[in-house]
Specification:
The complex is a heterodimer. Chain A is 47% helix and 9% strand. By secondary structure, chain A is α/β, with parallel strands linked by helices. The longest helix of chain A is centred in the N-terminal third of the chain and has 26 residues. The chains are: A alpha/beta, B alpha/beta. At the A-B interface, α6, α7, α13 and α14 of A face α3, α4 and α5 of B. Bound molecules: thiamine diphosphate.
Chain lengths: 369, 335
């Protein structure tokens, strides 16, 4: 392991060094070979991070242009998200929080689907069944229990049909870990042995509250206290995140207890487009993390090893430009559905009461036509 | 698999009728699982799940952790996976830790997904007072849930109906809050255990518990018995009360209510919850809007007082009883 004195050890002394495979100068560290770090894997992860950053930037711009009501940027967290989701199988189920855009893109979600909620044309935006990627959760930590329940269902299916080998992964933040639901879920999963990987992106801040003010114990230590197998990883090292998640996923898939991964990372932008991060954190801190940019680090490795030539970078740039154009067009094309739809979707079958109210609404609206 | 034959036809308590209903639902559909505190070996604190673990195994009758948000939150996850979880909340006053999971998650996921997700979770809650219990064990919290679109809220009142309603609730693709009147768990009536007969009222229909011509008395859950007793007394005084068991608190079957109100012109609504912002207020408003010209008097409400549920030794002064119902009936004649 490399010298990690420079890595933040919030909220308290981590006790263990976060797992790392890629040095800050882009050199591969001990363990990279064991983790099967290849040119192909690295190129793929890098591509996904570049596209995610492009998408995030476009969405941010669209918010500034008044096209989106709000945007919660994932800039800085691309490695944590891409590294983890790429370590899963397509058949695994993911329960996100609300900032998992990079992970969502890896699952194949379309820009339009990811933007609906923020443009205000829907509360959901995609079919969770299509992507095995569930809807975003805005109430913090609720999804940890949904993921636990889902994983319990998988476990029950597995007992009936031995072929079932899916697992569940759940994203949440360091602030969310303070909620009762998070603690109920960690305990519940540990006690029941649900096939689940909890993935905490400790991006240092919960809006303006630093991790150190949320928790007296490091989160992975707390998780271990519940009886989960816990790992702490450098969340800005996509190769380490990938390796740690792949290992945790394999253990869970093989029937091991639920796992907890704490990825130490950083939210580069404000909490949301309405936030002013300069009120609570200093420029020096942001700069320090800028130097640990998860994309730049991989780029150094790719270039140093000659794993990606000019051709690769040009093609990737073109891909990013195409995504950017598609994102802007898709956003502007998003129009609100008629309110009538909501009446129809409130219950499995519209009741007489709902129908009567919908008809009253429609009649009232049409009286202006 | 079905073991309904073990339950012989005849009289059953409401608790046993629910038990038989759960058994039937579990036998009919493998995806039905029960989750709750102490529901396995113990059979629940009211024994409603008695014997079901022995019959269906601990994979399908699951003793949950002591965590209400966890019970409902994991049930949502199980439902997303294709199961039909039936949660038991041990007492009415302990549902609040799960409030967010119920009103913000369970109720809304279907609409949020544009109708793509189905969350068939049933949450059984023993409700109401009258058993001399300690604090937080006698609450009527239906209004909180009725106020949230996306939930169905129902209350059973008697054994036979409870037997069918629990099966209907479990088979329903919507989340259902299922209230069980705890002071009626031991009431007995004839029950024919088995699947829901085709002529049973649908889950969202009200039921005329006793036909009458002079005054409509609308009640649900524990107060249906009170209303029926009031009707018996009123009859001896020469008044014919029509008692309606509401059954579904959300949505409300206003068709049945207004048909009766039009016939009698006098309406009394009875429930245990405080009348302030209670279901009775909604029913009174709706009946007034729909039947105003035919009413002989304003709709009367009889309910709990607007105070926290009182200590056990005073609950008889809090709970609407036969006399308060008859008083309200008298008031409807004073206009
Ligand atoms: C139950 C609840 N309380 C408050 C909020 C408001 N809120 C939204 S995000 C946030 C901070 C969350 O921080 P963290 O979990 O670390 O995630 P991050 O935003 O850093 O990704 C807060 C307080 C909320 N969404 N839900």
């Amino acid at each position: 392991m490399t010298d990690l004195t420079d890595v933040p050890t919030t909220p308290a002394d981590l006790g263990v060094a976060p797992m790392r495979l890629l040095g800050e100068d882009g050199e591969l560290l001990t363990g990279a070979a064991d983790a099967a770090v290849t040119a192909e894997l690295t190129r793929g992860l890098y591509r996904d991070m570049v596209l995610a950053r492009q998408f995030d930037q476009d969405a941010f711009n669209l918010q500034r242009q008044g096209e989106l009501g709000l945007w919660l940027s994932c800039r800085g967290q691309e490695a944590a998200q891409v590294g983890s989701i790429r370590a899963l199988r397509a058949s695994d189920h993911v329960f996100p929080s609300y900032r998992e855009h990079a992970a969502a893109l890896c699952r194949g979600l379309r820009p339009a689907e990811l933007l609906t909620q923020w443009r205000g044309t829907a509360h959901g935006g995609w079919d969770p069944g299509d992507y095995r990627f569930h809807l975003y959760s805005l109430v913090l930590s609720t999804q940890l229990l949904h993921a636990t329940g889902y994983a319990l269902g998988v476990a029950a299916d597995r007992r009936r049909e031995p072929g079932v080998d899916e697992i569940v992964l759940c994203y949440f933040g360091d602030g969310a870990a303070s909620q009762g639901d998070a603690n109920e879920a960690l305990n519940w999963a540990a006690v029941t042995g649900a096939p689940l990987v909890f993935f905490c992106q400790n991006n240092q801040w919960a809006i303006s509250t630093p991790s150190a003010a949320q928790s007296r114990t490091p989160l992975h230590v707390r998780a271990a206290g519940f009886g989960l197998t816990a790992t702490v990883v450098d969340g800005n090292d996509v190769l380490a995140v990938h390796a740690a998640t792949a290992a945790a996923a394999a253990r869970v898939r093989a029937g091991g207890p639920p796992e907890f991964i704490e990825a130490i990372t950083y939210r580069m932008a404000g909490h949301s487009t309405s936030d002013d991060p300069t009120r609570y954190r200093d420029a020096e801190e942001v700069e320090r993390w800028e130097r640990r940019d998860p994309l730049a680090r991989v780029r150094l490795l790719l270039d140093a090893r000659g794993w990606a030539g000019e051709e690769f970078h040009t093609a990737l740039k073109e891909e990013a430009t195409a995504l950017s154009e598609a994102t802007r067009a898709a956003c502007r094309a998003l129009t609100p559905p008629p309110l009538e739809d909501t009446f129809r979707h409130t219950l499995a079958e519209e009741t007489a009461a709902l129908r009567a109210e919908r008809e009253r609404y429609t009649e009232w609206r049409e009286s202006f036509a | 698999m079905s073991t309904t034959s073990e339950v012989s036809a005849g009289e059953l308590t409401l608790g046993a009728a629910l038990n038989a209903g759960l058994r039937q639902a579990m036998a009919d559909d493998e995806s039905v699982i029960l989750v709750g505190e102490d529901i396995g070996a113990l059979g629940g604190v009211f024994r409603v799940t008695d014997g079901l673990r022995a019959e269906f195994g601990d994979d399908r009758v699951i003793d949950s952790l002591l965590a209400e948000s966890g019970i409902v939150g994991t049930a949502i996850g199980l439902a997303l996976r294709g199961y039909r979880p039936v949660c038991e909340i041990q007492f009415d006053g302990f549902v609040y830790p799960a409030f967010d999971q119920i009103v913000s998650q369970l109720a809304k996921l279907r609409a949020r997904s544009g109708g793509r997700l189905r969350i068939p979770v049933t949450i059984r809650i023993p409700c109401g007072g009258g058993i001399g219990a300690v604090e937080h064990h006698s609450e009527s919290n239906e209004a909180y849930f009725c106020h949230t679109a996306g939930l169905r809220v129902v209350a059973c009142a008697g054994p036979a109906d409870a037997h069918w309603m629990i099966q209907q609730a479990i088979a329903c693709d919507d989340p259902v809050i299922f209230y069980e009147p705890k002071r009626r768990y031991w009431d007995k009536a004839p029950v024919e255990p088995g699947p829901v007969p085709p002529d049973a009222p649908a889950l969202d229909q009200a039921r005329i518990a006793r036909p009458g011509t002079d005054v409509t008395v609308i009640a649900y859950g524990p107060t249906v018995r009170v209303a029926l007793d009031a009707a018996t007394v009123a009859e001896s005084e020469g008044r014919s009360l029509e008692v309606i068991d509401l059954r579904s608190l959300s949505p409300v079957d206003f068709g049945t209510l207004t048909a009766s109100a039009r016939k009698t012109g006098r309406v009394v609504v009875v429930h245990e919850a405080p009348t302030f912002c209670g279901l009775g207020a909604e029913i009174a408003a709706e009946i007034t809007e729909r039947c105003f010209p035919l009413l002989e008097a304003p709709v009367q409400r009889v309910g709990g007082w607007n105070v926290p549920y009182p200590p056990a030794r005073t609950e008889e002064h809090y709970l609407p009883d036969l006399d308060r119902v008859l008083d309200a009936v008298d008031v409807t004649y004073q206009y």
